[in-house]
Structure formats: C-alpha cells, structure tokens
C-alpha cells in the first residue's frame, strides 16, 4: 500500500486489524445480539409463562430487530460516522434475513465491509447526506445478496456438523466443546457471538454452557480469598474475562477452571443430557446475567409447547444447577489445591483491580 493510500486510510480510520475485526467487532456484535434476540427471547419467555401477551409482543419486536442491532453495534466498534452507522440498520436486516440460520455470521462479515466502505466516502463530497448512506447501503445489500446465503449456509452446516458429532460422540465432543467454548469466553473474544453464528444448540449447546459456567464460577470461587464478594459477583455473573491480565502474567491459573470444564462438559452431555434448545447465543453466555440458564429453561418450555417433552423434571433442575454452579464451585478450587502447593499458583495471582 503506497503512502498516499495509507494516509487516506489512516485519516478515515480504516485499519485492517485482527484486533479491531476479531475482538472489538465480534464483541460488539454479541452485545447487539444480547440487546435484541437474547433479551427479546427472555421477555417473550416470561410473557408466555406468566400469560402476559404484551410481554410476548415486546419480546417479538426486540427479536425482529436482531440484524439491525448487530450491524449498528459493529458500526459503533468500528467508530463509524453517524450517517454510516444509521445506514447499517438496513444492511444488518438484509444480511440477517438472507443469511438464514447463519444470519449472525453473515451480518458480521457484511456489516464490516459496508461500514468500512461507508467510512471511506463519508464527508468526501458536498452531498454527503446522499452519497454516504447510498454507498453504505448499496455495498451492504449487494454483498448480502452475493454472499450472505453462502456464509449463512456454511455457518449453519458447520453448526449442524458439530451438533451431529456431539450426538454421535457425546463424551469426546462434550470435553472439546466445553473446554474450547469456556476458554473463548475468558479470552477477549465473544463466545456468545461464535455460538450464535454457528447456531450451536442441542447437546452441543449444553456442553458450551457447561464450559462457560466452569470458567466464570470457577474463577469466581477460586479467587474469592483475593477478591471477596465483589470478585465473586463480577466474575460469577459478569465475565471471567476479568482474569485475562492475570492469565497473561501466570497462565497456570487457567488450569483449574479449564480442567473443571473438561469434567462438567461430558457430564452435561452424557449423564444429564443438558440441552440448549433456546437461542444459540445463550450457549456462549454461561452464568452472565444467568442468560445460559434462562436459555436452557426457555428451551424446556418451548419443548413442552411443541409436545417434545411433557414436563420439567427434578432431574432436569438438578443437572442444570450442578453443571452451572455447584460442580464448578467445588471442582475448580480442589484442582487448584495441588497447584498452590507446588507454588504454581501464588498468593495474589488472581487479584483483580475492582
């Protein structure tokens, strides 16, 4: 890239950056999903259970804005000017609709492309109010028409392949999905966005929930001595990503919650048959705002309505509570004990600046 072009891109804040696209945009997309599809599902589920029709209506409207919400969230992460940001609403709706079951992944790619093209032309002409939205929407919709069905189909196929493999090999896949998803949740990457993009539900979604809970509850309990109740709540119903700085300093602190995930994952798939039949995005949320548990419950109620199950049993509740809270809280500190004795984990290694 010559200096003039590089200077123009710098002035427009267009940088081909793995961090910007792989972390910032993906994380923002997850927030967009939460503020539309996920919260809409929670509201609708509450309305259905309480027999309050207006809540169902509110939830349905929230869910209908999923594509727009994700695209605008991505635009915010990419620091788009207002005209570009507002134009991404149409782009997100198009990509999500054309992407089908893999709509979230289609929105992710298409919104990034449309946003960067929009930024390049923004305020470069005297008729910016026409040119900027025209370019942003035209590029976004055209790319959606050309690529969204393919991206969506690819993501959907990959998700189905993972779920099929989990049904076929629940123990092995329970370990792999639980460990990998849990680690992604703790990394500065959005596990929720990835689960949503792949449409990860069923037993695979249950394993993902187990892995995320192991990291969040595990770190919260293991670090209680250093962080007390503030850290317990910040990590337990917030995010284990808070420990990322400490993991960089001493990667060994990551062993106990990851090992716990390797235990709870196959227990979820093989013994309790824990399934995420609610929204796929909830598979990657763990105990964050109890979204993972609400998603599992939403799946139960949906299955009852569809006639796939007759009732929610005591065994179902026991499995959810053990996998989500009890086992991570017991296993993680126990696994950490020998590591503390070997001085692999030292006093203050888990301290957070809260």
Instruction: Estimate the helix proportion, in percent.
Output: over 70%
Rounded to the nearest angstrom, the radius of gyration is 21 Å
Distance between the termini: 43 Å
Gross morphology is globular
**What order do the helices and strands follow?**
HHHHHHHHHHHHHHH
Mean pLDDT: 92
Fold and architecture overview:
- The protein has helices at residues 3-11, 18-50, 53-64, 66-77, 82-99, 103-121, 128-168, 170-186, 191-198, 202-222, 224-236, 244-249, 255-271, 291-306, 314-341.
- It contains 15 helices and no strands.
- The mean pLDDT is 92.
- By secondary structure, it is mostly helical.
- The termini are far apart.
- The chain folds into two domains: 3-157, no CATH class; 169-341, no CATH class.
Write the layout of secondary structure elements.
Elements: H1 3-11, H2 18-50, H3 53-64, H4 66-77, H5 82-99, H6 103-121, H7 128-168, H8 170-186, H9 191-198, H10 202-222, H11 224-236, H12 244-249, H13 255-271, H14 291-306, H15 314-341
Helix pairs in contact: 2-3, 2-4, 2-9, 2-14, 4-5, 4-6, 5-6, 5-7, 6-7, 6-9, 7-8, 7-10, 8-10, 8-13, 10-11, 10-13, 10-15, 13-15
Compact description:
By secondary structure, the chain is mainly alpha-helical. 76% of the residues lie in helices and 0% in strands.
